[in-house]
What does this fold into?
Amino acid sequence: MELEISDWGLIDYEQSWQRQTQWFNQLVSAKRNGEQYVNRIVLCEHPPVYTLGRSGKENNMLLGALQLQSIGASLYHIDRGGDITFHGPGQLVCYPILNLEDFSLGLRSYIYALEEAVIRTCASYGIQAARLENATGVWLEPRTSRARKICAIGVRSSHFVTMHGLALNVNTDLRYFSYINPCGFIDKGVTSLKQELGETVDMAAVKSRLCKELELQLTQNGVRHK
It folds into this structure.
């Protein structure tokens, strides 16, 4: 199954949300009407922004409006699953806009595939990442007191068409996470490839690796939630 990959570079969150939604609606409509469409993977980074999903709790945002303004960040209530997270420069955001039926995937299997692609990407840098039971995303040392999240995942699905996706901390300024309870957790940390490796990581190389791993997971038709 061919995937069209787009790199939007550094893009305002609201603009990317609008473009995503447009492509998402086009795919849903084309699928419904038996028309041709394209499965897409979008890569980008955002200026500092917090997003709160449908099931998120307001009190996981620890700053008020004026405080948000003072740190140069904004807050959006959005239509994905999950709680609150941060996006900013140095974080690789990936928005797959896909018809899951083309890949013989259900929603749970799809999320498993996203996690697996990130786990394998981390492994290519010598970082052992894993899943944490009942907590979507990718973690380091997940079952210890040092559990820390390296990638957040939150998706929207309608008629087996997806939008939103994953956010992998590459060279992210992790201080921004101190202003929230990331993904609703108050007892777990956040990390990045840079934090773990002790040096700045080439973003282009991470993009290339993640795309290869993601395409493999989506197209092998064997991925299922275990």
Q: What stands out?
A: The longest helix spans residues 13-33. The first strand starts at residue 4 and ends at 10.
